[in-house]
Amino acid sequence: MPTEELTDSFRHAMSSFPSGVTIVTTADAEGNRWGFTATSFCSVSLDPPMVLVCLSADAQCHPAFSAASSWVVHVLPPEHRDLALWFASKGVDKFSRGAYTTTPQGHPLLDGATATLECDTTARHRAGDHTVLIGTVTRTRVHPATPLVYHHRAFHTLTPLPTPAPVS
Description:
Layout: H1 4-15, E1 19-20, E2 22-27, E3 33-38, E4 41-46, E5 49-56, H2 62-67, E6 70-75, H3 81-87, E7 100-102, E8 108-110, E9 115-127, E10 130-142, E11 148-151, E12 154-157
Antiparallel strand pairs: 1-11, 2-3, 2-6, 4-5, 5-10, 6-9, 7-8, 9-10, 11-12
């Protein structure tokens, strides 16, 4: 078990790595909607297209995602900052805020996401206090919006750097 000093140092080091902000959603066999905010999200493979997200093992939605055969990743724009915080909260009705449609599989699909990736579950791996969910992407939607970024435990927006002058 790591020391408190190592845990704090690790948290600080990881907060130095900026990441996008996502909300991941699914529906269980009874039609109940589940979701969580994730910053641990990345591509795994291009052929076939696969992604992964990490979910805390003590999250209320963990049992639903452990049984889910599919789920949706929503890359958030800055205007969904408050929704990211809401989905990161415990003990709240996650879907009482935001506007949603439904995928053919019955999963909540958040309106206004920068991108959405519908995924079929490929694998689940326990890793420390989290479960790594790996999914094969079956459908994507991309909208022209700048993504929300999380860095040093705060939300940010991207500002493009000026294009460098050509080298002669």
